Write a sequence for this structure.
């Protein structure tokens, strides 16, 4: 969206208790979405990856976590996409971290009951396996947290009309 990656943040920049975790849907090696496995086992897990292991180690008991998938779509978009594909995140599962064994690859989670249909978030996305975000740091994060953790609607018009997306999706 800008010169910086939306997922590039040092966890130390976030206040204690105000960190929310947006994480991938499981091992890429398995070739499958592991949301059901996570829910059944009461954990979230990723493949070992030195880029993300320090962030997983920083996850704290009581912090909220959500599992999402990311992809590009062209169908069923709630605004004029003008023949452009767009990045979306589908949110499948969320919960509260109950333990961190310190292995850098997993945390124990008390998951909420999964919604029958994932909720879809448009434009402002990250492919990072682990993406920490905090309230009151960036308007984009506030909207994302409200959507993913508080069941609020996304302010799609705000994102469509930001400088980065306006030429493709903004009001004319």
């Amino acid at each position: 969206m800008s010169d910086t990656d939306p997922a590039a943040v040092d966890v130390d920049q976030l206040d204690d208790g105000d960190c929310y975790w947006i994480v991938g849907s499981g091992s890429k090696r398995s070739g499958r979405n592991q949301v059901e496995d996570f829910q059944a086992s009461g954990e979230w897990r990723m493949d070992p990856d030195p880029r993300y292991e320090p962030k997983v180690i920083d996850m704290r008991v009581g912090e909220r976590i959500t599992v999402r998938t990311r992809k590009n779509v062209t169908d069923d978009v709630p605004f004029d996409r003008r023949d452009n594909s767009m990045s979306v995140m589908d949110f499948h599962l969320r919960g509260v971290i109950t333990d961190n064994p310190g292995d850098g690859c997993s945390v124990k989670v008390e998951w909420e009951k999964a919604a029958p249909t994932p909720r879809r978030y448009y434009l402002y996305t990250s492919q990072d396996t682990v993406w920490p975000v905090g309230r009151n740091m960036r308007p984009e994060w506030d909207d994302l947290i409200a959507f993913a953790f508080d069941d609020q609607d996304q302010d799609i018009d705000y994102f469509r009309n930001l400088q980065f997306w306006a030429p493709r999706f903004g009001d004319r």
Strands lie at 19-23, 43-45, 64-73, 86-99, 106-111, 119-122, 130-134. The mean pLDDT is 90. The chain is about 20% helix and 25% strand. Helices lie at 35-41, 53-57, 139-150, 156-160, 166-169.
